Queue: 2 jobs
Job 1
Amino acid sequence: MSLIVNNLQANIDDSPILKGLNLEVPKGEVHAIMGPNGSGKSTLSKVIAGHEDYEVTGGSVTLDGQDLLDMEIDERSRAGLFLAFQYPMEVPGVSNANFIRAALQARLPKGEELDAVAYYKSLYEKMDILEMDRKFTARAVNEGFSGGEKKRNEILQMMMLDPTFCILDETDSGLDIDALKIVSQGVNAMRSPERGFLVITHYQRLLDYIKPDVVHVLSDGQIVRTGGPELAHELEESGYDFLKEPVTA
Ligand code: ADP
Ligand code: MG
């Protein structure tokens, strides 16, 4: 699916964070967003997903022409959207397997039961790809997981829900190099002409494994530069100093 963000403005506690943000991710493409800390990257992802702390004060977000901002969070998910959180939440008392199963069950038409055998087969297949031990099925969602285990678990949920538009918010942070490769393989296996990806990252390193079609720089609530994969290399070398340089005509 393709995502179009048009002139998006959003506040938190009355202070503006997104200040007229424009972005278009055509289906089939992987776009990366980089940018300094505090520039609004996570805010963008949470506003798209429908987090209630953020007040949208202007602009629009559409997924294949459907107005996302008008939808409840679960409707956005059913429309095909998935967000892998920068800081995944712990859900004590709910096992990982039951959590994902409930999410899948919730998508079925009323009265239809998820096939348990097929479900576990699919779950184990994906866990094998992500090299996750089977013990993670019975453990409470993210409870006591290491940073890297939480990030793998986000990707497991993504693979199981099979969304058509995926946003990954700094999924690479907290991963060692082997985990980074494994997670990237999972993402790359999901790339398809029908699916779009928005990958938020601080590091070029991730983009060595998940090759983006387009790289954007977000600064102070707006996309200030857009380029090809070479832009990520340039940022890695010279940082974000260009943001401070006076604009010359
Ligand atoms: P990034 O992901 O680019 O590092 P964020 O979107 O997390 O940036 O944050 C953008 C700005 O919004 C920061 O100044 C941050 O302190 C502020 N902000 C984000 N979420 C909240 C919140 N829940 N309460 C108060 N301020 C917030
Ligand atoms: Mg962030």
Note: The chain has one domain: 2-244.
Job 2
Amino acid sequence: MHLIDGKAIAAKINAESRAAVAELQSRGITPGLAVVLVGQDPASQAYVRSKDKTAKELGLHSVKHELPADTTQEALVAVVESLNADPLIHAILVQSPPPPHIDERAVVEAIDPRKDVDGFHPMNVGKLALGDADAFVPCTPLGCQRLLIESGIETRGARVVVLGRSMIVGKPLALLLSAKGPGGDATVTIAHSRTRDLAAVCREADILIAAIGQPEFVKADMVREGAVVIDVGINRVADPSSPKGSKLVGDVAFAEVAPKCRAITPVPGGVGPMTIAMLMHNTIASARRWAV
Ligand code: NDP
């Protein structure tokens, strides 16, 4: 069994990004990322901090807009529009989830699709579905695909089962892996909470990707011997033995599934570190496009 080291692969991608930033800077371009956070959700604050920290470490121009929880829809859209117009900013991300009074879809649609590095704007979703090379692809699915490529796992012709059909992970990942070309060409099944005989569907998979948000849901009897398992889930569960009283687990019951696998990602240290690395990658790609 090979443990796919997401931290090491993310570090390699970040090193490539650092070199790409240096090259762009020699041409007078500094890729600019703006992250907008509304409210004080601690998990969102932590994500925004680490995006900002990584961006700065790689030499990007990084700005954080932390807005109060009672920010109106109009005020938030006004911030997005000012970033759309800012020539120093090539990438805009509004941290999800916003407070309930905000219409997230409308905010995403206010982002200039050419700066939408999260790939959530309908223009980019459509481009991904069409197979356009210039689509911004959501960072977590892009990170999953890159983990497979970097680990030498062939997707061409493989049977892939993606567990979960969200627009953030499951659906874009299914589009990506079924697209033509390297890292794609797979035969992809999307499974979800209405799937009949879910365990049997999962057992069909050469590559099983779990993105459902259910702690340790995927058990050994759902996994074929020799399968590759990518665990996207991040779930905090009680753990009386830890000083914090809780720990992070994935959507896969790692201890029982890992011995059956050809390769598997751990949680934490698998897909998680890839998401931010791919955000930096998308930001640099955007800056390159704006430069021509
Ligand atoms: P969503 O809640 O948006 O979607 C969950 C999907 O899983 C839905 O399609 C749902 O089906 C399906 N599902 C839920 N329960 C079951 C079940 N018992 N059996 C079959 N299918 C089920 O979650 P996200 O896609 O946003 O996130 C999924 C997981 O990935 C979470 O743990 C999240 O924390 C993690 N995540 C990790 C990231 C990272 O950086 N590593 C980034 C983003 C997410 P239905 O549509 O029928 O309701």
Note: The chain has a mean pLDDT of 97.
